Amino acid sequence: MIEINRVSQWLESHIEGLRGPFEFNMITGGRSNITYRVVDAAGTQVVLRRPPTGHVLATAHDMAREYRIISAVGKTEVPVPKTLGVCTDLEVNGSPFYVMSYVEGEVLDSQLKASVMTPELRRTASENLIDVMVALHSVNIDEVGLGDLARRDGYIERQIKRWSAQWENSKQRELPEMDEVERLLREGTPVQHGATIAHGDYRFGNCLTNTATGEIRAVLDWELCTLGDPLADIGYLGVYWSDPGALARKENDPSGLEGFPTYKEMVAMYGQKSGRDVSNIDYYVAFSSWRLAVISEGVYARYVHGAMGKSDFDPAPLQRSVEMMVESALHALQGGKK
Question: pTM value?
Answer without folding.
Answer: 0.91
